[in-house]
Specification:
heterodimer, A: mainly alpha, 3 helices, B: mainly alpha, Four Helix Bundle (Hemerythrin (Met), subunit A), two-stranded antiparallel sheet, 4 strands
């Protein structure tokens, strides 16, 4: 493991930290939007923009992890599990917040 | 140091330094084996108490219109059963198991902060004793183990009952926080050289994630308890809807802790399974990397489920959908682990023994609990069975299946390690069958009574509802299960008393804890190994004699010091020698003083509580002053031709990381307070308030003060680099006093805090900042004392690094707190008319 710098430990948690960020952001916006009676289109637009931003960040992170994995022969342990955790977080973000697309917002 | 001594001579020399003493000296023990064992034994005693309470509950519910106990006593019984099992049994048991096993599995001689573990144990024991003693006086908590407001508010629970829960549990949680910091730092920094993260046994990974979850999961509950106690004692209305508070805020804070708590309990149990199953399957675990990913996913996802306990409180459907989706998703990483264990068994050559009985019991019970969990994640179904016995059945299937069965497997597996004796086993098999049959009889019936509409927490029920037969069966099952647990207890005592001396490593395991004598010596390993393969595939018979002969690292005693090794947290490269403190009565003294402080608050003698709090702080300063190293030691020989400096002379050693992780927990508490403030502003009734806070220009003075802190602490570090830190530290202390005074003035500018939640949350935010200014002042004075006694030098600068962390943290949170209080009138102005 000597070729892997210590900060790569953070890659293991970066994906799900973004998932948690998306959770806070979307749950918060939903609460604020309902309390201030935002028009539905506005609230849904903000929710979907936030979701898209988080998905894009996760996609970028997954791509970077993939690149690191490919940069030398056999991926180091942290590169392998970092990529796996990031992909899992990407899927979790999509599934957790997909209801923003269709469900009624403040009922 | 290079001379070879005989294993016996080495043992005697190490025992002299590491031993915990005899008689009364045992009270000064700080050794991880002793403290771990104490946690485990005490947790089992509380389990017995919780079990008796469960029997009383089942006796009451066995028949309709039972006259066994009345509603007042029944409320205390179910509240105390839940409280004891969750806070005094499950969490301390996993802490004790981690403390006992981790250094032994990771190839270290002890945990990073032995005195902290000992202090945690005393807090747990005294806090638990206060809570349990309340039953003897008939004033035990009676508002349910999750203490919902307004039932637990002063209006509806005017007595001392709820205060005992709030103060007692917060007291016990000190041990959870100390254990979490201890475990995280020890796993990351105190492993055997060569044990990179990918060579760490899965047990280490599980406990690492669990401890992180504790760091982030417990602070919301601690904050909630503090706020509710402030409401009960001083009338600050955080949860009172008539004064701008909201009872639902309590539910959020409680379940922000409460749901991750389920996984905090499950993950160590899964750690036990991931250790035991490969041994009995006689092959390495299948899917090591997949399990690591699954644990990380569980660690995060479990924080996105808390609202599934609150599906009926009226939260918008979209938000419910987020929590519902996360609740279902969490089944996937759980399933990854279950399939890994099954695949390990399928691909191995499983052999039968008592621990495997409980492993199979786990599979059956936990999978059923998991499936009813997925059912409860579905919002409409959840609404139907909310607060019925279906939920009681589900939670017992998850917690008993996911914790008690694996822990019993672990108990039978590691008992020869604890006692050095082999199991008698005549009672083990009937005990298992009584437990598993009794358990399913008790709790499967509750699914049915729940679906038939029987609510939880009712002390009696009418006849002819179709519940009588099922309840009677439940009670019969409950008593059968209790007999099973009594047999397990008898079995343990028989082994301890009559068991034959066990051979070393009776299960032919391949983890390091078996490469040492059993029962374990105080120093764990006579010398520390160098790890060159995955540490769950060690050739134990080959390694043990070389370690006992002192052929590993640190196979000697130097200057009567307790030494273990520190490594790079990722690569496991040897980095430094960790010098550990000797046994001490200080943790006990601090624990007694903390108990006195809690009792002072409980009986509302606040001057006494404040005095005791100051005494606790003084005792902590004493911890820091004794054992301080007063000269530079430079690189030290550690054996196998290696020389490394002591931890006091390197960057990023265990004390620094402990401060980082303590501040992570602290930041979670602060974030919960900010969340609470904004939540009440946005959602609670009776807003806007009649009066708002106006801090005036003093707020700007406070903000400038934080800038001063930021600069002065850096100046102190620069002064230490040239060997003259005292003057700069004095200036820093003076700045802290000034900041404290300014924050005091700001607190005084809040008018009539009990009148509205806006004023109460502003008070809480500024109080938080003031407490941190006081902590910074104390740390500065402590560092100054150390500088005067020569315990700090340009090389030994860890105290100053820690000081900088705290000052920076206090500055960031202080600026946020003051700015938020300044901004609140603006935010209140934006609120739509109610």
């Amino acid at each position: 493991m000597s070729q892997v710098p210590p900060r790569r430990l953070l890659w293991l948690t970066a994906g799900f930290t973004l998932w948690a960020g998306a959770f806070l952001a979307l749950y918060g916006v939903n609460a604020v939007g309902c309390a201030f009676a935002w028009p539905s289109a506005l609230q849904r637009g903000v929710l979907l923009t936030l979701l898209a931003l988080h998905l894009a960040a996760l996609g970028y992170l997954a791509w970077r992890c993939w690149q690191l994995r490919q940069s030398h022969g056999r991926p180091a342990f942290l590169e392998y599990v970092g990529f796996g955790a990031t992909i899992s977080a990407l899927a979790a973000t999509l599934l957790t917040f997909a209801p923003s697309l269709v469900l009624s917002l403040c009922d | 140091m290079n001379e070879r001594v005989s294993p016996i001579a080495l043992h005697k020399a190490l025992e002299r330094v590491w031993g915990s003493g005899h008689g009364w000296q045992r009270l000064s023990a700080v050794n991880h084996t002793v403290i771990g064992r104490r946690f485990i034994v005490t947790a089992l005693l509380f389990f017995a108490i919780g079990g008796v309470l469960a029997m009383l509950i089942r006796a009451q519910l066995a028949t309709t219109r039972s006259a066994f106990v009345g509603p007042d006593i029944y409320n205390q019984l179910f509240t105390m059963h839940g409280t004891v099992m969750m806070f005094l049994f499950a969490i301390p048991l996993l802490e004790g198991l981690g403390m006992y096993l981790l250094p032994k599995m990771l190839g270290a001689r002890d945990l990073a902060f032995p005195r902290l573990s000992a202090y945690g144990y005393w807090c747990y024991l005294f806090g638990g004793a206060i809570i349990v003693a309340s039953m003897l006086f008939g004033v035990a908590p009676d508002g349910g183990w999750f203490m919902y407001t307004p039932l637990s508010s002063a209006t509806y629970t005017p007595g001392i009952n709820a205060d005992i829960w709030l103060l007692g549990i917060t007291f016990v949680e000190i041990s959870a926080m100390t254990a979490a910091v201890e475990i995280v730092v020890s796993i990351l920094k105190l492993r055997a050289p060569g044990m990179s993260l990918d060579r760490m046994p899965l047990f280490g990974w599980y406990m690492l994630i669990t401890a992180f979850m504790m760091l982030v999961g417990f602070p919301p509950l601690i904050l909630g308890s503090i706020l509710l106690e402030m409401e009960r004692a001083f009338g600050l209305p955080f949860f009172d809807p008539t004064r701008g508070g909201d009872p639902v805020l309590w539910q959020h804070l409680f379940w922000l802790f409460g749901h991750p708590e389920v996984y905090i309990i499950f993950l160590p149990a899964a750690a036990v399974l991931s250790t035991i199953i490969p041994v009995f399957a006689q092959r390495p675990i299948v899917g090591y990397r997949a399990i690591v990913i699954a644990i990380v996913a569980l660690g995060f996802l479990s924080f996105g489920l808390w609202v599934h306990h609150m599906f009926t409180v009226g939260i918008p459907h979209l938000a419910l959908a987020f929590f519902s989706a996360a609740s279902m998703l969490v089944a996937i990483p759980t399933a990854v682990q279950i399939f890994s264990w099954l695949a390990t068994l399928a691909q191995g050559r499983p052999r039968y023994d008592i621990p495997m009985l409980y492993v199979f019991g786990f599979f059956i019970v936990f999978v059923i609990g998991g499936l009813t969990g997925v059912m409860l994640a579905v919002v409409p179904f959840n609404w139907q069975v909310h607060d019925t016995h279906f939920v009681v059945a589900h939670l017992h299937y998850v917690l008993v299946g996911g914790f008690v069965f694996p822990m019993l497997a672990g108990a039978y597996y590691w008992l020869p390690h604890f006692t050095g004796r082999s199991s008698v086993h005549r009672l083990s098999v009937p005990a298992f069958w009584l437990i598993i049959v009794g358990f399913n009889l008790t709790f499967f019936m509750m699914h049915l009574t729940g679906l038939l509409g029987m609510p939880r927490r009712v002390y009696t029920y009418a006849p002819n509802l179709g519940w009588e037969g099922l309840n009677l069966l439940s009670s019969v099952g409950g008593f059968a299960m209790a007999m099973g647990f009594a047999l397990v207890g008898a079995d343990f005592i028989m082994q301890l008393r009559f068991g034959r001396r066990s051979v070393r490593n009776p299960w032919q395991a391949s983890t390091l804890e078996w490469a040492q004598p059993t029962p374990p010596a105080s120093y764990a390993f006579a010398s520390l190994p160098h790890i060159e393969e995955r540490a769950d595939s060690i050739d134990v018979p080959k390694l043990s004699p070389t370690l006992a002969a002192g052929q590993g690292y640190l196979g000697f005693v130097r200057d009567e010091r307790m030494e273990t090794l520190g490594v790079d947290m990722v690569t496991g490269r040897l980095e430094h020698v960790m010098l550990l403190p000797r046994r001490s009565y200080l943790p006990l003294i601090s624990g007694v003083l903390t108990a006195a402080c809690v009792l002072g608050m409980l009986f509302k003698i606040y001057w006494f509580a404040a005095l005791c709090a100051l005494a606790v702080i003084a005792s902590f300063v004493a911890w820091s002053q004794v054992n301080a190293i007063t000269r530079d030691l430079g690189p030290m020989e550690v054996g196998r031709g290696a020389r490394v400096p002591p931890h006091t002379e390197v960057e990023g050693s265990a004390p620094w990381w402990a401060a980082v992780f303590s501040l992570l927990a602290n930041a979670t508490l602060f974030a919960s307070l900010v969340f609470g403030t904004l939540y009440l502003w946005l959602v609670a009734p009776k807003w806007p308030p009649a009066i708002v806070v106006d801090l005036g220009l003093w707020a700007l003075v406070a903000l400038i003060g934080y800038l001063g802190h930021f600069l002065l602490v850096r100046r102190a570090i620069a002064a230490n680099a040239i060997g003259k830190p005292s003057a700069a530290l004095l200036m820093l202390a003076a700045a802290s006093v000034a900041q404290l005074a300014v924050l005091w003035i700001l607190l005084a500018r809040i008018p009539d805090a009990p009148s509205h939640a806006h004023l109460a949350t502003s008070f809480a935010l500024l109080l938080y900042a003031a407490i941190h200014a006081f902590i910074c002042l104390t740390l500065t004075l402590n560092t100054l004392l150390k500088a005067r006694s020569g315990a700090i030098s340009p090389q030994r600068r860890v105290d100053l690094s820690v000081l900088k962390l705290w000052f920076d943290y206090a500055a960031v949170t202080g600026v946020i707190a003051v700015a938020l209080v300044m901004l609140m009138p603006e935010l209140i102005g934006m609120l739509p008319p109610s």
